[in-house]
Hints:
By secondary structure, this protein is of the alpha+beta class. It has one domain (4-123): STM4215-like. The protein has two helices and seven strands; from the N terminus they run H-E-E-E-H-E-E-E-E. The chain is elongated, with a radius of gyration of 15 Å. The chain starts with a helix and ends with a strand.
Amino acid sequence: MFSIESLAEYLENEVIYNYFVNDFPINSPDQTAYLRFDGGYASSEWTSLKRPSFQVIIRGGKNEGKETEQKANEIFQFFHQRKEFEIEGYRIVICLADQSVPFFIGKDENDRPLYSVNFSLTMI
């Protein structure tokens, strides 16, 4: 089964950072990101086509806005328009960003910058 854990592991092997699943763990480092599924489109009734979408929330250290934005852009560049790759035996035909640039969503309670990038997969 295709999992968010396998997607996080795939990203971690390609873009160096601390990645977690679904939320930031308590006491996680400042420079951390998490991935979570956020719905997507309905699966095909007649074929194996699926179109899940996922979100990556990137957090940096206090006063590291520029560095955090750079990491968000690195993740954006890695996934956007990535074609023909495989995760857990699933063929990903294409991955497309759902926006044109990473989105600054503000700062957390500890004044650390947060960015969001969202992607949709087409997979069979």
